[in-house]
């Protein structure tokens, strides 16, 4: 090889290295990216939007508008033969053991819609005591004179079949869309009622037990039985003729009083005193734990703690809260 060819061969690697280095330098603003033949350019990606979280479930919602809207609530009376509507869309359901083996439910809707909700029943003190802190718009079917006065004094907004102009109720049913349309403008979203855990978080800091079945036995009435469905990670129960599910079931034991009302018709009925404190039991996911509940007054959230004083950390999702009278038996297995 002559001297010129030798020099050309020696310079070739240096030129290749020099070109590679030049291509790796940052391009000036507005320039065109150069891609080597055979190399596929990585697609440009935009960050995944972070959806807001619903305060009553701890789950993401479809839009910021849903997260920011106020809640709506409906009292529902359920007997053994009743087929209630809309309970599957409620974020929280409060259940009081009422007269004649019935349940008086307070269904609260915020993150999801229900085309039918009912049968809508009268307002009761338990509704007022559960709802005041959440500030929902309430659809209810009248009530005893004294209970209506309590509702008005609590400064809760609502609508009844007698003053809806035929726009909110159809027979004994309503819908969340009709209630939100009738609600005053400027309502605020509800506060969180539970301190939801993250994946891997234990339900309680102590005394956690495996749970597959929960039975609530109240004297004089049929038991409430809930079973854990591991495939869906949900607790399954039956209310009236309808199967319902919940991520969390809370059982709060408390004093019940007998109230006597005179208007519009004389009768006596049981009423849960949801103010104060008492024992609690919770199931969420495949776990159960004993605890304590405490609700000082109308404008305070009911806090539920384990026996060590730490807040329970249920899995995100909807919740059923049973107000159980003293003397009821709560078992799990």
Let me know the number of strands. Answer: 18
The CATH homologous superfamily of the largest domain is named: YerB-like
The CATH architecture term of the largest domain is 3-Layer(bba) Sandwich
What is the class of the largest domain in the CATH system? Alpha Beta
Domain count:
2
Morphology: globular
CATH topology of the largest domain: YerB-like fold
Arithmetic mean pLDDT: 88
SS class: alpha+beta
Description:
There is one protein chain. By secondary structure, the chain is of the alpha+beta class. The chain folds into two domains: 64-182, YerB-like (YerB-like fold), CATH 3.50.90; 208-332, YerB-like (YerB-like fold), CATH 3.50.90.10. 15% of the residues lie in helices and 31% in strands. The chain has helices at residues 3-23, 64-68, 125-131, 145-153, 176-182, and strands at 72-78, 92-97, 103-109, 137-139, 157-159, 208-210, 213-217, 224-229, 234-239, 242-246, 248-254, 256-261, 267-272, 276-284, 287-295, 303-306, 319-325, 329-332. Strands 1, 2, 3, 4, 5, 6, 11, 14, 15, 16 and 17 form an eleven-stranded mixed sheet that branches. A hairpin with a 6-residue loop joins strand 7 (213-217) and strand 8. The longest helix has 21 residues, at 3-23. It is globular, with a radius of gyration of 29 Å. 37% of the residues are buried. Mean pLDDT is 88; it is low at 1-41. Residues 1-24 form the signal peptide. It comes from Micromonospora rubida. Residues 56-174 form the DUF3048 domain. Keywords: Signal. InterPro entries: DUF3048_N (IPR021416), YerB-like_sf (IPR023158).
């Amino acid at each position: 090889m002559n001297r010129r060819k030798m020099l050309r061969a020696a310079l070739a690697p240096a030129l290749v290295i020099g070109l590679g280095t030049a291509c790796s330098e940052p391009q000036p603003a507005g320039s065109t990216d150069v891609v080597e033949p055979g190399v596929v350019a990585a697609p440009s990606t935009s960050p995944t939007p972070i959806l807001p979280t619903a305060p009553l479930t701890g789950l993401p919602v479809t839009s910021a508008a849903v997260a920011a809207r106020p809640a709506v609530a409906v009292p529902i009376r359920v007997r053994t033969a009743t087929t209630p509507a809309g309970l599957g869309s409620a974020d929280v359901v409060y259940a009081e053991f009422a007269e004649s083996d019935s349940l008086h439910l307070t269904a609260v809707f915020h993150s999801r819609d229900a085309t039918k909700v009912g049968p809508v029943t009268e307002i009761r003190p338990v509704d007022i005591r559960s709802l005041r802190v959440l500030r929902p718009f309430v659809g209810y079917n009248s009530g005893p004179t004294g209970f209506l006065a309590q509702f008005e004094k609590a400064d809760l907004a609502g609508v009844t079949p007698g003053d809806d102009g035929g726009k909110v109720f159809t027979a004994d049913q309503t819908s969340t869309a009709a209630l939100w349309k009738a609600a005053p403008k400027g309502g605020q979203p509800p506060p969180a009622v539970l301190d939801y855990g993250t994946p891997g978080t234990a339900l309680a800091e102590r005394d956690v037990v495996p749970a597959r079945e929960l039975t609530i036995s109240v004297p004089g009435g049929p038991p409430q039985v809930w079973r854990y469905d591991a495939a869906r990670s949900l607790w399954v129960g039956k209310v009236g003729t309808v199967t319902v599910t919940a991520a969390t079931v809370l059982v709060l034991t408390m004093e019940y009083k007998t109230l006597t009302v005179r208007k519009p018709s004389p009768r006596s009925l049981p009423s849960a005193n949801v103010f104060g404190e008492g024992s609690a039991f919770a199931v969420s996911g495949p776990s159960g734990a004993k605890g304590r509940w405490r609700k000082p007054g109308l404008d305070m959230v009911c806090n539920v703690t384990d026996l060590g004083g730490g807040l329970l950390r249920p899995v995100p999702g909807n919740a059923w809260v049973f107000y159980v009278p003293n003397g009821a038996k709560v078992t799990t297995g």
